[in-house]
Specification:
The protein has helices spanning 2-28, 37-52, 57-79, 84-104, 106-109, 128-160, 166-193, 197-220, 223-234, 236-240, 245-271, 282-294, 299-323, 328-349, and strands at 115-116, 273-274. It is mainly α and 365 residues long. Helix 2 runs antiparallel to helix 3 and helix 2 (37-52) packs parallel to helix 4. The protein is globular.
């Protein structure tokens, strides 16, 4: 059970990073990206292939993020001057193109056999000093997480104060999120006391998540972030003020792509072997679910959305077979159907998401 919860923590952090890149592109800038998985594909394969050639793991991951950002540059320069519908069409087409290249270019990606046996981060047998240092870093990230949850839900309460029942709604989710984070932290301490590779990867993924989240929070409240929000609301206004709207959109697409590229490196380390089938369009739409659930344009909401999504996924994965009322195929379809139903109810009752600001909606305009 401990190892499973460690794996759940890694998946949650991985998807949170992946969705934060999408939230920057869509939630902050209004760019509709239905092929976000393409950036993760580039990041994963670049990291795995380069480390097999002897490139240090950290440098390989940075190069993977840079190449994912370059893909954003190539997509953006050809589509961002057109209507936003074209960006949605092009991105989903590019994601499938890259997946098919990974499937067929066996000289580079090993095709359907997958890339295997590449080096993994913190795959070590630490002494007591190194183990205590890893636990200290893990504890620091946990404290940062609780602090950010406190801030985020405080803002959520203030924005919901005028909505009937809104405060009660936010408080319930705050209590649930705090309980889940505390439980995962305690489980992580148990796992790190009996160290294995997955425990090290859990710490790596959480540190990267904290750095990405902190960086995005900083730039979201900077003049650059405010210009992105202005473009999302009405790009003619910043254009009239002399801002290069195309350049800001391109920067957002590239930075969001780089963040997704980092999540791709984490995905490669989590799976330990990567295949083209690991990068189906479903990953993109899972990220959309996370962003909409937590609240678009809100980084803390994206983290909460990832936490809720993977908690739901894990609970239903175990609960449905227990009742034995449907087979595995039916259970998988039912779980997806329930997610769709939850989103439908949420869009009617609280369209801004759990922590989103109703005044900053980007849907239905």
């Amino acid at each position: 059970m401990v190892d499973y919860l460690v794996s759940l923590t890694i998946w949650t952090a991985l998807y949170a990073i992946f969705a934060l890149g999408l939230n920057l592109q869509w939630g902050f800038t209004g760019l509709i990206n239905f092929g976000h998985v393409a950036f993760a594909t580039i990041g994963a394969y670049t990291t795995a292939i380069l480390t097999l050639q002897g490139v240090p793991i950290a440098i390989a991951a940075i190069i993977g993020a840079a190449l994912a950002s370059l893909l954003g540059l190539l997509i953006g320069t050809s589509t961002l001057r057109l209507r936003e519908d074209y960006l949605a069409i092009v991105t989903i087409g590019v994601s499938e193109l890259i997946r098919l290249v990974a499937l067929n270019e066996e000289w580079l990606t090993k095709g359907a056999f997958g890339v295997q046996r590449y080096p993994l981060p913190l795959d070590i047998e630490p002494n007591i000093i190194v183990k205590l240092l890893i636990i200290a870093v893990f504890t620091g990230v946990a404290i940062f997480a609780f602090w950010q949850l406190w801030r985020a839900f405080g803002k959520g309460l203030r924005s919901s104060s005028e909505t009937k029942g809104g405060n009660k709604f936010v408080i319930i989710w705050a209590a649930l999120a705090g309980f889940l984070v505390l439980g995962l932290y305690i489980n992580g301490l148990i796992a790190l006391s009996d160290y294995n590779y997955k425990g090290g990867l859990m710490v790596v993924s959480l540190v990267i998540l904290a750095l990405v989240y902190g960086g995005l929070e900083f730039i979201a409240h900077s003049p650059w972030g405010r210009i992105l929000k202005a473009i999302r609301e009405d790009e003619e206004i910043p254009r009239a003020l002399g801002k290069n709207v195309f350049w800001y959109k391109l920067q957002s697409l590239m930075l969001g792509g780089a963040i997704a590229g980092l999540s791709g490196a984490l995905l490669a380390w989590q799976l330990t072997t990567i295949y083209p089938t690991n990068f189906e369009p479903l990953l993109t739409f899972n990220a959309w679910i996370i962003v909409i659930l937590g609240g678009s344009g809100n980084n803390a909401g994206t983290l909460l959305g990832a936490l809720i999504f993977w908690t739901y996924d894990s609970l239903t994965r175990f609960a449905l077979p227990y009742f034995k009322i449907m087979n595995d195929s039916q259970a998988g379809s039912f779980r997806i159907m329930v997610i769709g139903l939850i989103l439908m109810v949420l869009m009617v009752w609280r369209p801004q998401g759990i922590l989103g600001n109703k005044d900053e909606l980007t849907l239905g305009r």
